Amino acid sequence: MKLLIVDDEELTRTGVISSIDWKALGIEEVLQADDGINGLEIARKYRPEIILCDVRMPRMTGIAMLEKLENILPDSIPIFMSGYSDKDYLKAAIKLKAVSYIEKPLNPSEIREAVLEARERYLKKVRSHRGEALQSMKTASHLAQLLTTPCNDTSSTEIQHLITELLLPSGPGIHITCAVIHLHTVPEFIEPSPEKIYQKFHLLLSHYHADCVFVAKKLQYLVYFIFTTGPVSSTLSNAMKEFLCEQFQNYDDHFIALGESFTGISHAYQAYTSAVILLESSFFFPVNSYLTPEMITALPLKVSETMPTAIDGLFSEALTSQNNSTCQELLTKLQKHYDQNTNVLPDQTKDLYYKLFIALENARKQQQLSALSYTSSSMVSFLEKCFTYQELHNTLIKQTYLYFEELQTSVPEHSTIFLIKDYISKNYNRETLSVKDISSHVFLSASYVCTFFKNETGRTLNQYLTEYRMEKAKNLLADPRYKIADISSRVGYSDGNYFGKSFKKYTGLSPSEYREKLN
What we know:
Alpha-Beta Plaits, five-stranded mixed beta sheet
């Protein structure tokens, strides 16, 4: 805590400072001023929690100074000191809620007692404000949650009650605007926290006679409902954009969407829907974009004819015929068509890209190249988690590049080895998968298959199967949604302990240690 001593007598100030062990009282910094005007300036700048102040001073009295500070530092605790036991001064001290009125000459023990009492009173005030703020935030969050659903008679009554309780602007002319922030990852230990950003946003809006409520949905969506007494001005709009972009710059990839404004609290859900629709389009924009309806309207219309029909078939044909230039041409057309395209949906786009990845996987099999690093299910998982179109497209570009690069450098694998590896890639999750199953698949005896595979690859069949399963397990461990017990069964181990031992033998780390290391 900081304490400010305001007294026009230098000897008094230095005497008080030197005669008391301030750190023992919880005071980390002691400031001083020689009159009320300087005391006012220092208090504004350093915001002391306790003010030890003389009553009578030249230029401005202590009473006048503290009356001016009431609006600036409402929680600061005053302690008066004076050589005049004047009733008027005592009344003023009581009105300003002073802890004590200490008469001069000053007694250090009286000052210590007064400071300890002031410290306790200040902490009590802070705890009370904190509790009120938490309750207010909880109420605001509940209101924001209600506003994200269509309004009915029951919710309408509750909404009006909460608006009154929170002292929000209301009435038929009230304007509602919704901002939704979509975070790529769940915010953990990031400063400022979403709650602190809300408090700062609330303060910013108060300067424009506006207000807001906030709720976090599914942890990755932060929803703000902004209340204004009239249409959102360009000044306020720019201030909100600057504030939100600055506050979320420390977060991972994200998008901010500010929807249309609607008149009347009954249209809050439409305001929310407007922002959500904008977020649908955000998939096709660069990360950390700030989207508004005006920005979307200003974009040139994408012409659907620029996109070839049955592009997945054309892409598959170009891969099979090893025509790299045609593949690159198709990828360029895809990029031009989808970049900042607000007329398509992310799910439709992901469906098409799933077909393109399948075409790439089929081409690799035809050319007897190693399979892609993900299975059909993990490919679906990747598509679901893709945050932006650019991330999706860049992955396809990379895999296409690797395909043509391997075509140039790879030595064709023996067809039997290819069939064995392909069978393992499709059945590795079966605990009962055996050498006999593999040999039957390629119509050879088990002993011959083992010898042949070892001679061709330098590894035994069991070694290859174990390594394949462990690499799949490593990929799954990188995804926190999968439990280790589930991963065990997904890669063909019903015994979790045996899986753990095998994994540690392969990587040198237990599955949990490996996952922790990734984070």
